[in-house]
Amino acid sequence: MLRRYGSPHHSRSQSVKAQRSRTGERQLLGLPQQRARVASMPNTGVEEEYYRLRHFSITGKGVVNRGDSLRSRRSRSNTSVASSASSTEAVTRASAPCSLASSRDSSAGLSTYRVLVLGGPGVGKSSLVGQFMTSEYLHAYDTSIDDESGEKSVCVLLAGEESEITFLDSPPDNMISEGAAHGYCVVYSTADRASFAEAERRLQILWAAGHTSRRAVILVGNKADLARSRVVPTDEGKALATSYECKFIETSVGINHNVDELLVGLLTQIRLKQQHAERVRKRSGSRKNRSRARSPLEVDTTTTPAPASAASTPRKRTRLSASVKVRGLLGRVWARDSKSKSCENLHVL
């Protein structure tokens, strides 16, 4: 017995029947008209420009990638009519503490930073910057990526504050010495000894110009996944970063290792450096105000030494100078050890 699948009262063969006219001619089925395609983005009547916003958070386990999202640039403006989600985001950014002395977009209060990516050829600078732009995995060993040098910008949301970072790949030497950047990434390949020497030369230029103390400088050992081809040990790269008073991290664009950590650490170092400079400026200003408020009598009283016997004065000075020397030596040793330990921690100064 032949069974039909489906409802016993309504078979598939009877679902669509062609109607016949009274003259016996078969009429074609009336198909619905083709609907025109519409854009997936909301139609507001105004052409909008969207950008990618990368969201990160720092937890006890490290950097957590919260994903990427598309945002409208019109929502940054305070005068534009934004959606409820955009309005909530704008309120969150406005309520966050903003004590950074950085370049800001006047319409939205957006912090903008410039970072120079330095290093020898073939170390993966362009591939590293390209991976900064998205959470999606890029083919790191595509040789065409190395030719895409120039400026690239990415927006990052970290600690409730949105910032835009512009990376400049292979800038000229005069731009490096002038200090026209908020941060520097000095990249070398762990499989290339010559690139490590080039990175040390770049660090010497930055250190001589005083940028290592005032700017965010990170030494990056890229291609850490090439274990069999490694010629620069991790300890050697760390020692070089410690000697030039900068941070250190090893990355691998090939397996997307520590790329997000470098991006977040770079932004964190820029913010910390600017906050430290602001505190130093305020402290020096308060000292100047206190010195101006002093009367000449108070200054003479503080500068005049207390009377002491001739026999006891040289002995006290000798003991004092010896203790100062010991404390200074211990302080330098402790500072060197602390810098070595915090060299790989990109979230502290």
From TrEMBL:
Q: Disordered: where is this region? A: 1-42, 64-88, 277-320
What are the Low complexity biased-composition ranges?
77-88, 301-313
Cited InterPro entries: P-loop_NTPase (IPR027417), RGK_GTP-binding_reg (IPR051641), Small_GTPase (IPR001806)
- Keyword set for this entry? Phosphoprotein
Does the keyword Secreted feature in the UniProt annotation? no
> Listed GO molecular functions?
calcium channel regulator activity; GTP binding; GTPase activity
Q: What is the lineage of its organism?
A: Eukaryota, Metazoa, Ecdysozoa, Arthropoda, Hexapoda
Which segments show compositional bias classed as Basic residues? 1-12, 279-293
Top-level taxon of origin:
Eukaryota
Name of the molecule in the record: GTP-binding protein RAD
Family matches, as SMART domains: RAB (SM00175), RAS (SM00173)
Which positions, given as ranges, span the membrane?
none
* GO cellular component entries: plasma membrane
Q: Say which family it is in.
A: Belongs to the small GTPase superfamily. RGK family.
The record's annotation in SUPFAM superfamilies points to: P-loop containing nucleoside triphosphate hydrolases
